[in-house]
Amino acid sequence: MDAAPFRGGGAARPQAPKLTGMPVDRTAPQPLHAQVAAVLRSEIRDHEMPPGATLPSEATLRDRFGVARSVVRQALAALVSEGLVRREQGRAPVVASPQEHRRLVQRATGLFEQFSRSGLTLSTSVVHLVPADPPPQVAEYLGTTDTLRLERLRSVGAEPVAYVRTWLPSARVPGLTEEMLTDASLHHVLETTLGIRPVSGRRQVRAVPADARLAEALALPEGAPLLLLEGGGADQLGRPLEWFATWHRADRVAFEVELSEQDERLRLTPAPDLLPAAPTPVPSSSPALDRARDLVDRLRAELDTLASGGTDRR
């Protein structure tokens, strides 16, 4: 799409695209403004309207969709609240640059709680909550094969940002339901209903390509880069409570790590050939041992002399 210069100078900004007419479905249960917002949202995500592009005027959108101007304004307000459209006083709305969210990877708190503390509303839809046999490494960590597999999609506004798969020991989470976890934090639910929550654990991060299923869930092309955060969590008593894998959109989420001197403790296990050799036994009597003992005796005598005032060595 060709860029057109502003009147009066300044940086170039993409022109509003010439979008074809698309009347809304007045028989559908979805409100008219939501239908208009859905179409515009799709066009923004598909880069039919790239970042920085000026949106069509309210009059143009009104004619395109065959709705009242108030409906168009509601739709635009929704896109502004989602961060997809930016509005400035006295200027036409423009497509916003993609928003990047940040996550502290060394915290035991989950994505929901971290986003909430930063003022973001993270919606959660439960895809699956079913009994399932875990992979071997998960079974080994949790100490059981009687587990639940919980899969959730996390979104900011209407935009998916992460897909989460969590394994839980069935015996430790009785009564857990999809309704309890919709638009909620798993950790908060476990703490308020069962008095347990993960407080420690290990994490590992990898960059992986999106397979077909993840690509569809996260509204990405297959093979798009994802940030995978994976690990286990133990409760207040050190008992394994969960194993999770969270795939984050790399174009929407950045990982942050807090550092301090007291955290700079690295435990290394050297290879066997690098370990110090066992000391060679020394017999109780040998020429080397006798010389060492004689040297110690002479040093001790010299120290005694110095301590008592010694002689003048000038």
From TrEMBL:
GO molecular function list: DNA binding; DNA-binding transcription factor activity
Transcription regulation as UniProt keyword: yes
PANTHER family the record matches: MANNOSYL-D-GLYCERATE TRANSPORT/METABOLISM SYSTEM REPRESSOR MNGR-RELATED, MANNOSYL-D-GLYCERATE TRANSPORT_METABOLISM SYSTEM REPRESSOR MNGR-RELATED
Residue numbers spanned by region Disordered: 1-27, 270-290
Regions of compositional bias (Low complexity) in chain numbering: 1-17
Organism: Actinoalloteichus hoggarensis
Chain ranges of the HTH gntR-type domain: 30-98
Single GO BP term: negative regulation of DNA-templated transcription
Entry protein name: HTH-type transcriptional repressor YvoA
Signal peptide, first to last residue: none
